């Protein structure tokens, strides 16, 4: 389909920067998620790729052709917005056919392509429906079909499922991923939902305050976060603020080897990497509560210094409120000034073996 190259793109509104010096290569047929909190610059970046915003600096290339100064209608891109942006005075067929009519294609070809697009998104018999008669999920499918019918080289999706309920979001994102893979279309998907990004993406671009924090496949983003921000933004993470002296963490509950220069650090420990051992006397923490999710339990533990941590345990564990425990970290990452300074090697424990079903 197409290869997208972004070189040093920035966008400022007066003295305020929404996007700062972002560079990215998106391969042919790849689905990349732009992930970040509100105000991180992800939608602005997508709008610049689509031609709806002009960059302050940098360039955008599609198949090695510079499209930075081209308007949206001159770019080989199709964009699906969160708001659907359907015309309520037109039926579904004419909403989808609108762009093809602007291109002055023959009526027979328009009819064939619209019907193919409707079938692709699972709305083969909905052509004569008025858009106001459709559910939110159906309207979003029409918006997707309206973009796909133009056969764009690059598909841009700006939080298209944000207004839908959770179950519908999950179903539609699976459908979009299936369609994207069948067509082999290069796709950028903006979301602030980490689960959505982890489920959809070949790679994730994590943005904060207009800057790129990390670009990597979902498994690496989760297991190998390069910054404290990414570690906290993706999945659940326990953070322990402590001091290193002579290569040892000085925290009472986590006296761990951290071979870095003396000073303050932040230990990051995933709940699934944290095991609990019952303490015979007063331990480093006390069980606050245990929440059963069916496949596993999440146990909240209050450490003696007031920090609350979460440990993932097997579904048949029985940690009752008030039990004194010692937390044991099977793996951790250490950050200083938002940057990774040390990562430990995972050490299997009996508890996390049970959680993940290992022998």
Automatic annotation (TrEMBL):
List the InterPro entries.
AAA+_ATPase, ABC_SmlMolc_Importer, ABC_transporter-like_ATP-bd, ABC_transporter-like_CS, Mo/tungstate-bd_C_term_dom, NA-bd_OB-fold, P-loop_NTPase, Transp-assoc_OB_typ2
> For this UniProt entry, which segments traverse the membrane?
none
Coiled-coil intervals, chain numbering: none
Q: Name one GO biological process term.
A: quaternary ammonium group transport
Supply the Pfam families for this chain: ABC_tran (PF00005), TOBE_2 (PF08402)
State the Gene Ontology terms under molecular function.
ATP binding; ATP hydrolysis activity; transmembrane transporter activity
Q: Which residues are in the ABC transporter domain? A: 4-234
Please provide one cellular component term from the Gene Ontology annotations of this protein: ATP-binding cassette (ABC) transporter complex
What keywords sit in the KW lines?
ATP-binding, Nucleotide-binding, Transport
Query: Which family does the similarity line name?
Result: Belongs to the ABC transporter superfamily.
Q: This protein is called what? A: ABC transporter
Q: Which organism is it from?
A: Rhizobium altiplani
Q: What is the lineage of its organism?
A: Bacteria, Pseudomonadati, Pseudomonadota, Alphaproteobacteria, Hyphomicrobiales
